[in-house]
Amino acid sequence: MGIEIRDIKKSFGEKEVLKGVSFDFEQGKVNMIIGASGSGKSVMLKSIVGLHKPDEGLVLYDGQDFHNKNPKEQKDIRKNIGMLFQSSALFDSMTVEENVSFPLKMFTSQSTHEIKERVDFCLQRVNLVDSNKLYPSELSGGMQKRVGIARAIALNPKYLFVDEPNSGLDPLTASVVDKLIQELTVEFEMTTIVVSHDMNSVMNIGDKIMFLYHGKKEWEGTNKEILYSNNKALEEFIFVSDLIKR
Q: Which of 92, 126, 134, 225 lies deepest, with the highest CB count within 10 Å?
């Protein structure tokens, strides 16, 4: 099924950030949330993950209302969530292997051998074989992102949340990370939600796209439809994004 949001509203004091947004994030697809700074993208992501509670509206995981669950039920849903943060958020004092094994030790009762096997599989899947004993400081930015992806898929999640995956990466490395996210989404049939302002990424892997504008869903469609949207706000966003990249 995937994740559905229904009429999500969120304010902070007098500031209304999300103004009644509805959308269906589909399983097995890369669903993207795009928009300018201040459009509500991060608040939307945090509301879906459960870091913010919407003032109104529903967040449904495969039909289950997340914010009306008790803490134990919410934790059961969270076990099925993988996250890749903008900064990769790796633990500097831990090796690559220790970083990837962290959620396995926290959420499972697997043996040391089973954890090692899963870590090796995840690292192999992101093309980082033989990097187990390295520390984050010894890795390039792109390699750190791939370690972050390996950790995010360690628990074989049903849902994957990715925040600005290409931030700070050169175009070639960004393309590698995009392709990896797309492949894993299909391979594991995950519901993947990516927050991005990188139009190259949107055009390459955006199966389903929501454009937020001043807290409202201004447009939705596929990367094939986006260039023919005839939506003035979206056209301006694409044009400005292209100018910034130049």
A: 126
Angle formed at CA 36 by CA 240 and CA 206, multiple of 5 degrees:
85
Q: What was the pLDDT predicted at 168?
A: 83
DSSP state of 1: -
Average pLDDT, integer, range 13-26: 96
What local confidence, expressed as pLDDT, does residue 32 receive?
Answer: 97
**How many whole angstroms separate alpha carbon 167 and alpha carbon 156?**
25
Report the relative pairing of strands 64-65 and 81-84 from DSSP bridges: unpaired
Query: For the chain, where do the domains classified as CATH 3.40.50.300 start and end?
Result: 2-80+159-245
Find the helix packing angle between 96-107 and 112-125, rounded to 10°. 130
Q: At what angle do helices 141-152 and 96-107 cross, to 10 degrees?
A: 20
- DSSP label at residue 29: S
Q: Would you state the pLDDT for residue 239?
A: 77
CATH for 2-80+159-245, options being 3.40.190.10, 3.40.50.300, 2.40.50.320, 3.30.450.40: 3.40.50.300
pLDDT over 90 (residue 241) = no
pTM of the model: 0.92
